[in-house]
Amino acid sequence: MTSKANSIKLFSISTPPMRAFHLTWMAFFVCFFAWFACAPLMPVIKGEFNLSVAQIANINIAAVAITILVRLIVGPLCDHFGPRKTYTGLLLLGAIPVIGVAFAQSYESFLMFRLGIGAVGASFVITQYHTSVMFAPKVVGTANAAAAGWGNAGGGAAQAAMPLLMGAMVMAGVSETMGWRAALIVPGVLMIIMAGIYYRYTQDCPEGNYADMRAAGIPIEGGKKGGWDSFKLAATNHRVWLLFVTYGACFGIEIFIHNIAAIYYVDHFGFSVKSAGLAAGSFGLLALFARALGGWVSDKAALRGDLNSRVTLLFVMMIGEGAGLLWFANASGATYAVIAMLTFGLFTHMACGATYALVPFVDKRALGGVAGIIGAGGNVGAVAAGFLMKGLGNTQQTLGVLGVLVAVSALCALAARFSSEAMETASMPSKIAA
């Protein structure tokens, strides 16, 4: 019987774990590209629909709000149906609003499609679930962080590529109004293609697909029969909710920056749309290595110490993120602002990787529920940041307040420390018959 992978062989797709690894980060990349494709075009869309600051804040909130609910749902769905079918379904359903936003004719219709697009952000939970069931404890932190980081880079790629894609459309002879709309159809089509590839070439876990395993009476690692049982079990664990807060303070900030960075550089520093997209894109592209670095360092810290070494690392990363965010909020010039953004962005992405390096050890009986609830915390953080900006009415002030809140929330990481008994339980394999 095939077992979990004890190493990551990047240039191989010969085993189920490595096929899942590569295809899950690719699917995640496509989803994040689609999720944030609108953000760098907002300066143009703002002009077309005559959007106010409050309306832009509403759009940013809508972009992440529904993801909270969908993330809570897809984790248990992975336990029940398996990550293969869950991811395929999310890609196909998510493509509908992604393509639909290109046909929006008013602020209201744009807002509704933007709300629907937010569902694709739940792809993160499925990616983390799939790598968690495919890789052994000694490398699972690195596998989770690398897959998530490379997929996350789709957000940065969208920031840089979408203005260029719109520019190419305009150069081809279409109007700017049609250019941004045509550009936004591209990520929707990519999602449909990715759905077919994912369904065809992945399987749920090293042993096979959940449906086949249940039919054969083979036990499945996960939350009882999946679904609601997994969610209930995860919801009773206090560490889940502490990491829910910390993830809101790192990934939530990451999403918030993706949504406001381009328009902040245009309004605050006078950047062009293309320059602002490239500056904002550099933040997202840090995910290519920074999140993986956070997971790798977490794995190394655990090997030299214990499970609580992962917790301490997360605390340090979040303190660095808070300090860097305060620097970014008070940067006096464009150059310093970009340097500050890259500095706190490094800590932010590493904190995200360090958080999900802990997830597989919180409660192995409810992996889907744990991954879903903590993942939803990221979007709760982003929504809270959106409401804070709407209330303050000033992006720079919002960034300063968020810097303080991130530093304070780092205390939740310390509170999530494991007792000796909990560490012993976390190191034991868990096989529960479905």
Question: Could you describe the 3D structure shown?
Answer:
This protein has helices spanning 16-35, 42-49, 53-81, 83-100, 107-117, 123-134, 137-171, 176-201, 210-215, 228-235, 238-269, 273-285, 290-304, 307-329, 334-362, 367-392, 395-415, 420-426. By secondary structure, it is an all-alpha fold. It has 2 domains: 15-212, Growth Hormone, Chain: A (Up-down Bundle); 224-423, MFS general substrate transporter like domains (Growth Hormone, Chain: A). Helix 4 runs antiparallel to helix 8 (176-201). It is globular, with a radius of gyration of 21 Å. It starts with 15 loop residues before the first helix and ends in an 8-residue tail after the last helix. Belongs to the major facilitator superfamily. Nitrate/nitrite porter (TC 2.A.1.8) family. It is found in: Membrane. Its main location: membrane.
Distance between the termini: 18 Å
Q: Helical proportion? A: over 70%
Q: Classify the secondary structure makeup into a structural class.
A: mainly alpha
Superfamily (CATH H level) name of the largest domain: MFS general substrate transporter like domains
Overall radius of gyration:
21 Å
What portion of residues belong to β-strands? under 5%
**What is the number of beta strands?**
0
The CATH architecture designation of the largest domain is: Up-down Bundle
Number of helices, counting only DSSP H or I runs of 4 residues or more:
18
Give start-end ranges of low-pLDDT stretches.
Answer: 430-434
Q: What's the number of domains?
A: 2
Q: What pattern of helices and strands is seen along the backbone?
A: HHHHHHHHHHHHHHHHHH
Shape: globular
Could you describe the largest sheet, including whether it forms a barrel?
Answer: none
**Topology-level CATH name of the largest domain:** Growth Hormone, Chain: A
Whole-number average pLDDT?
Answer: 89
Which CATH top level class of the largest domain fits? Mainly Alpha
